[in-house]
Amino acid sequence: MCVEYCPVQYPDKFNQEISHNKAVHVYFAQAVPLVTYIDDSCLYLKEKKCGICEGVCKMGAIDFTQTAEKMEVKVGAVILAPGIEPFDPRVMQEYRYGQFENVVTSMDYERLLCATGPYQGEVLRGSDRKHPKNVAWLQCVGSRQVREGANSYCSGVCCTYTQKQVILTKEHDAGAACTVFHNDIRSFGKDFERYYAKTAELPDVRFFRSYVDVVREDPQTKNVTIRYSTPDAGVKEEEFDMVVLSVGLNPPNAVQGLASTFGIELNAHGFNATVPANPMATSRPGIFVSGAFQGPTDIPESVFTASAAGSQCGQLLNRRRGKLAVEREYPLEKDVSDDLPKIGVFVCHCGANISRIVGVPDTVEYALSLPNVVYATEQLFSCATNSAQEITDLAVEKGLNRVVIAACSPRTLEGLFRDTLREAGLNQYYLEMANIREHCSWVHAKEPEHATEKAKDIIRMAVARAAHLEPLQEFDLPVNKAALVVGGGVAGMTTALSIAEQGHPVHLLEKAPDLGGMARRIHYTLEGMDVQGFLSDLVRRVYQHPLVHVSTEATITAAHGYVGNFQTEVKTRGQVKQIQHGVTVVATGAAEYAPTEYLYGDDERVLTQLELEGGIAGGDERLLGSQSVVMIQCVGCRNEDRDYCARICCSQAVKNALKLKDAKPEMDIYILFRDMRTYGFREDAYREASERDVKFIRYEPETQPQVEAVEEGGRSVLRVAVYDPILGAQLAIDADTVALAAAVIPSEGSRDVAQMFQVALGPDGFFKEAHVKLRPVEFGTDGVFLCGTAHYPKHLTETINQAYGAAGRAVTLLSQDTVVASGSVCDVVERQCISCGECVRACSYGAVELIETPEGKKARVNPVLCKGDGLCNAVCPTGAITLRHFTDEAFLSQIDAAMGDAAGEAEFSHIGDKVA
Question: How far apart are CA 203 and CA 180, in angstroms?
Fold first, then answer.
C-alpha cells in the first residue's frame, strides 16, 4: 500500500534493485520481496513533509521517528557475505554508456525483461519506447582487460547470463535479431554447453568472435553503430537498435573498509585472500566467507558455499549448538473436518508477473461466485511477510477452513503457505495452490484475455479440489546420528571430517585400497597448492579422528531405509557388515576419459594431461627435455557422445604449460583450443602463459587436429596438423610430446549407487541435484546429499567448497532428534486387494510389500518409506490403494470443474462408481 499511495513520481529509469519509479520501492531477493526501501527522493526525508506511507502501513513497518543506533553483539564466529557489484562501464568511455540512450548494461536489460521492471516486462528502448528489433551484446565489458578501471580476471557468469537474455528476448519477440560479440564462450557449468547450443540454434541469433568498438549514435533514430573485425571481410560496421554491455563483477563497494574492520587480508583483485585448502577461511581465525566474496561465482556455488561456511562455524561452535534455539509454537489445531467448507481465495499479483497479463480484480470477483467460497481478495505479493500474516489473520477473522492461494508454483512456496494455515490453527493440508503464473501468465503473455479466462478455470478447479481436502497428520521419525559417506576422495574425506568435527560418527567407504581418489594423480594447482602434501595431511586426519570409521576395498551390496534411518550392507575385504546411519553423502568422484583418438595408446609420446603432470612432477627427462609440446583440448567432450564441457581442462593445460616453461623456458608449447575457459582468477595464469610465449591456436570442431608419427630430419616426431581460422591456413607442428585434455567422465559405479540409494542421474551420467540453485547439494530423496566431481567436474577448491556445503546440509538433519514425515502417503483397503503384486513392482522405494493375513496375502504400505508419488495407486486394478491428499474424489471434482458444467459431472460420475 505504501507504494500505491506514494505521491512522488519521477521518470522511468533503469534500476538494478528496485521495482517502481516512486520514492517507495519493493526490494527483491530471488523474486521474493523482503522489505520496502525508501530512497532519497522521499519528501519526508528531504523536507519533513508527507509521511503518507507511514500512515497507510498496516504493519507499522515504516517509522520516521527512528534514529541510527549502534549495537554490540557478541558472537563466536562471523561469516562475511558482502557479495559483488556490477562493473560500471562509465569508467570506459569507449562504450558510450550514459552518452548514447540505447546503450544499456546487462543489469539494465535484466530490469527491462522483468515483469516488475520500468515497462512491466516489455523490452522497450529508452529513446522512443519502441521494441528493439536488432540487439547486440558485447561481452567481457570490464573483465579480462588489463587496463585502468577494468579487471584482469574473468567474471565467469557473463556468457551464460547473456545467453539467457537472448532466449528471453526471442520469447518476448520471436522476430528480434540477436548478435553476441564475444571472445571465448565460457559455458563451463553443468548443462551450460547444451544451453549455449540451444541459444545458438535459435533463428536470427549470431555468435561472433570479435572485439568491438561503439562508434556513433544516429541523431534521428538513436540507433547505435558498432565496429568489429571479421576473419574474411576485414573490419565492418553495423547498426543496431540497442546495444547491451555484458558487464562483469567487481568486489563489493567499500571492501577495503570491511577488510580493515574485520582484520582480514584481500587478494590483488579486492576479494578475500582465499586459502586453496580451505576456501571459506580468511586470514583471521573464526571469520569465514561465502558466495562471491571468494571470487566471481554463480548462484549454485554461492548457495553451497553458504552451507559450507555454516558448516565451518558449526565445527568451531559445536559445543554451543542448540543453546540459543527457540522452538516455534503454533496454536492448537481446530477440528473442522465435519464443518461445511468455507474457502478463502487469495490471488497474487506477483508484482506484475501475473497482474500484467491476468486481470486479477476480475479473477477475484469470479472466485467469489464459486461454490463454498466465502472470501476472496488480491495481494501484491502473497509470499511477503505481511501478506502471509494477512492470510493467517483473515482465516481466523472470516472463519475459513480451506485456503486457495492463486499464485506461483507450489514447488518453492507451498511450505510457507502451509505454515500460515498452522498459524491460524488449521491443518496445513487444507491448503490448495492454483498455479496461475507458470501455468498461465508466463505461457500466455501475449494473450491477456485468454490468460484471464484460464486463470479463472485454474482457480475454479482448485476451489473444487479444496472442498474435498482432508486433515492429515505428519509424524516424527527418530534420527540416527551417524552419517555414511560413499567415496574416499578429497570430497568424501572433507565431508566426513566436517561432520565428525560436529560430533557425529561417520562411516567412510572407499572402493579402492587407499583413500585419495583422483587427487592421488594431481600434484599442484594453479594457485600453487602442494596437492600431495595436502592429501597426505587429509588422510592422516581422517584415520586419526575417533569418529571416522574407514572401510577400503568396500562394495555396497544393499541399501534400505528412509531419511534419518538408513541401513546399508557393505562388503569389505571379505567381510559383510550392516551400517545404520541417518544420512548418506554420495562423493564417488569421477574418472578420466581414455582417449581413442590422436594415437593415444598406440604411441607412448601421446599422453593425457594427468599423465603429463605425473611426468613433470616425477622429473621425467624425456618430457622435460622435449623441444616441442602440443596440447589438444576438448578430447572426448563437447561432442555428440558427451555434450558437456569438462570445466577443468583449459586450466589444467595452462598449469602444465607453465610448469614446462619453468623447467625449460625455450620449449615450444602450443595449445590447440576451441574456447579457453580459464574462468575467474585463472585468467591471470592464461595471460601469463601467453606472455611466456605459449602459443594458443583456435580450431573449429569441424576441422579437428590430426596427429601422425613421421620422420623429420633424422628424428621421429608427432606431426600435428590443424587449420588456423585467423591465418586462414593449415598448420603443421612437429612435436616431441602430445598432451590430450581428456574429458572428466562419471565414475564407473555411479549407476549402481544411484539405484541403491534411489537417486537420479543427469543426461551426462553425473548425479542430478534436487534443484540446481535452491538445493545444489541435495537429492530429491530426503536424507541423501552429494558433492565433488560425482556432481560435475570441478577444480579442487570448488570440490572442497561443495564438500563442506554437503556436510553443512547433512548436519542440519543430524542435529535434529526427529524428522517429520509427510502425511500424504498411500493406504490400502485390504478387502479390495487381490494380491496381484503390481503395486510392489511399481514402487521405486520399496514401501509396498505383500503381507500374510487371515484373508491371504495383502498389500501393505510402510508410511515411513512411502514418498507419495502415487505409482502404486495408478497401477492398482481394483482401486484398493488410495493416496492421501490426492484422492480420486478430489481429482474427479477438479475434472468436473474443468468441464465447467453439469454435463461434466455426469460424464465422469461413472468413474467414481467404478472406484467405489
Answer: 13
C-alpha 916/C-alpha 880 separation (Å) is 9
Q: Give the DSSP letter of residue 132.
A: -
The pLDDT value recorded for residue 60 is: 61
* CA–CA distance, 599 with 552 (Å, rounded to integer): 35
Q: Alpha carbon of 911 to those of 448, 828, 874: distances in Å?
A: 35, 19, 14
What the block records as the C-alpha cell of 70 is 549502534
Residue 881 CA to residue 840 CA, distance in Å, equals 12
* Residue type present at position 158: C
Instruction: Give backbone dihedrals phi and psi of 824, rounded to 5 degrees, phi first.
Output: -85, 80
> In 3-state terms, what secondary structure has residue 487?
coil
Question: Confidence class of residue 5 from pLDDT cuts 50, 70 and 90?
Answer: low
**How far is residue 468's CA from residue 424's CA, in Å, rounded to a whole number?**
20
H helices within 357-489, ranges in order? 360-368, 385-397, 410-423, 448-466
Q: What percent of the chain has pLDDT above 90? A: 80
Q: What is the pLDDT of residue 67?
A: 81
Confidence band for 13, pLDDT divided at 50, 70 and 90? very low
In the three-class reduction of DSSP (H, G, I as helix; E, B as strand; rest coil), residue 452 is classed as helix
Query: Cα separation of 188 and 171, whole Å?
Result: 24
Q: Would you say residue 602 has pLDDT above 80?
A: yes
C-beta separation of 317 from 324 below 8 A: no
Cell numbers for 409: 508454483
**Closest to 247 measured CA to CA, from 167, 177, 161:** 161
- Radius of gyration over alpha carbons of the chain, in Å? 31
C-alpha cell at 532: 600431495
Query: Cα–Cα–Cα angle for 202, 208, 211, nearest 5°?
Result: 150
Instruction: Report CA 616 to chain centroid distance, whole Å.
Output: 37
**Phi, psi at 541, each rounded to 5°:** -65, -35
Phi, psi dihedral angles at 395 (to 5 degrees): -60, -40
How far, rounded to the nearest angstrom, does the alpha carbon of residue 865 sit from its chain's CA centroid?
Answer: 28
DSSP annotation of 703: G
Q: DSSP string of 838-876?
A: HHHHH-SSS-EEEEEETTEEEEEE-TTT-----HHHHH-
Rounded CA separation 114/117 (Å):
5
pLDDT range class, residue 42, cuts 50, 70, 90:
low
> Among 583, 584, 497, 508, which Cα is nearest to 549's?
508
Q: How many helices (H) and strands (E) does the chain have?
A: 24, 42
Q: Number of C-alpha atoms within 13 angstroms, CB side, residue 769? A: 24
Query: Which contacts (CB < 8 Å, 24+ apart) does range 111-114 have?
Result: 111/14, 111/15, 111/16, 112/14, 113/165, 113/168, 113/169, 113/172
Angle, in degrees to the nearest 10, between helices 385-397 and 410-423: 50
Q: Are strands 628-635 and 668-673 parallel, antiparallel or unpaired?
A: parallel
